[in-house]
User: What shape does this take?
Amino acid sequence: MLSKDKLDRINTLANREKESGLTKQEKEEQQKLRTEYLKDFRQSFKTQLSGVKVVDPEGTDVTPEKVKRLRTENKDN
Assistant: This one.
């Protein structure tokens, strides 16, 4: 997960961009931070999704095979 300082910086740059625009260096920093944030978000979501188990009304496990494979891949890593 991204540190609070980095999240605060992302928000600061976003607000400054809306108000007065950003310098070239600030735009590069913003893009780098956003990329890092999205990478962390996707990994966290993927991990959370791999823990999902889908059960139909009869109690049968109907979890999609893709999710089951993802669960297995996460155990191996």
User: Anything to note?
Assistant: The chain has a mean pLDDT of 91. The domain at 4-76 is CATH 1.10.287.540 (Helix Hairpins). The first helix runs from residue 4 to 19. Residues 54 and 60 are 8 Å apart (CA to CA).
